[in-house]
């Protein structure tokens, strides 16, 4: 196989066979295909796409690059995944709530892609939290406490682990075949029986419009069904950040507040919807109404928060930072942005907020960059809110980098203002599911 010929064929709009895709993926996993060739191939896919057969072959090859866990002894295991957004810390809240309701949650998360934050980066804000569990540790913890949130082990879909990092730094994230195969290869390899997917739509997501989001959702449902998984895709709005906090330790603090019953309304709404679907898919609730009631109970009685503490302790994290989020990493300075006139917030361009967070150090400009867990943004107003002149609408947590001024300018520019009342945005836009 000459890799350059496959790149050229895909560049020119041709199709690859399953054997050709498998040879490319396995060669890249072993190191025989270099980064520069795989990045060229990924860019060809961004421009030319893949049909359903090619996408299925890519997913299957990525699963075959490593082992596939057998979780049958744990009963019906449910996983949850978001396609990535700005301020999306839902997993940190919903996973312990669902586990507290008796459904095992086996979650292999990723790092930030582009301007969207990664669950692992957020969890590493907690001193000592391990995201590198071995397969044996993963299985032992799931059996012991019913929840694991860790990174991919080197044995599970290692092709995706390599591709994931490469795409983040080569401008090749927003391609439906690459996103669908990445997400579903991890889910299939990790051994869950069902998966609930949050497909983000809008400026702060990789899918900018509802039609693309539906296409991605259908692709992932089809892949899941072909591999015996029950799949639900919820399409949710990402035209503004989710919740108020954007940035790693800030989002951990907001997740903790939400588990303590003090979360922002949109994050709570999404948590209840995703959690209920996970309970139904996990066969711990007959219908969505009873499932929502169980999630609400786990929020109200503190059992979800207790399960989060248990998770952090099991993976070596400092529980004192969970009990007192003021002990989490904090930026040395906070710049407060105030309204210059009384007006309603008409828009908060989510991708600009995400890019600003990267400039502050909360994300990566290039592969391997360190994360500054202290930095980020806390919003004091969302679309539809009225802000009086002189009132704060955002706090920017800065570390003193030269890029801070540019980031602050981006945040100011991300806010749109209106003298007239503005309706609040609809959060949940649709649902596509297998039977």
Spell out the CATH superfamily of the largest domain: Nucleoside phosphorylase/phosphoribosyltransferase catalytic domain
Mean pLDDT figure: 94
**Overall number of strands:** 13
This entry's quaternary arrangement is single chain
CATH fold node name of the largest domain = Pyrimidine Nucleoside Phosphorylase, Chain A, domain 2
Could you tell me the strand content as a percent range? 15-25%
CATH level 1 name of the largest domain:
Alpha Beta
Q: In the residues, how many domains can be counted?
A: 3
The tally of helices reads 17
Helical percent range?
A: 40-55%
Largest sheet: 4 strands, mixed
SS class: alpha/beta
Distance between the termini: 40 Å
Tell me which CATH architecture of the largest domain applies here: 3-Layer(aba) Sandwich
Shape call: globular
Low-confidence stretches: none
Question: Secondary-structure element sequence?
Answer: HHHHEHEHHEHHEHEEHHHHHEEHEEEHEE
The Cα radius of gyration reads 21 Å
Could you walk me through the main structural features you see in this protein, from its secondary elements to its overall organization?
This protein has 435 residues and is of the alpha/beta class. The protein has 3 domains: 3-49, Up-down Bundle (Transferase, Pyrimidine Nucleoside Phosphorylase, Chain A, domain 3), CATH 1.20.970.10; 72-325, Pyrimidine Nucleoside Phosphorylase, Chain A, domain 2 (3-Layer(aba) Sandwich); 330-418, Alpha-Beta Complex (Aldehyde Oxidoreductase, domain 3), CATH 3.90.1170.30. Helix content is 46%, strand content 16%. The mean pLDDT is 94.
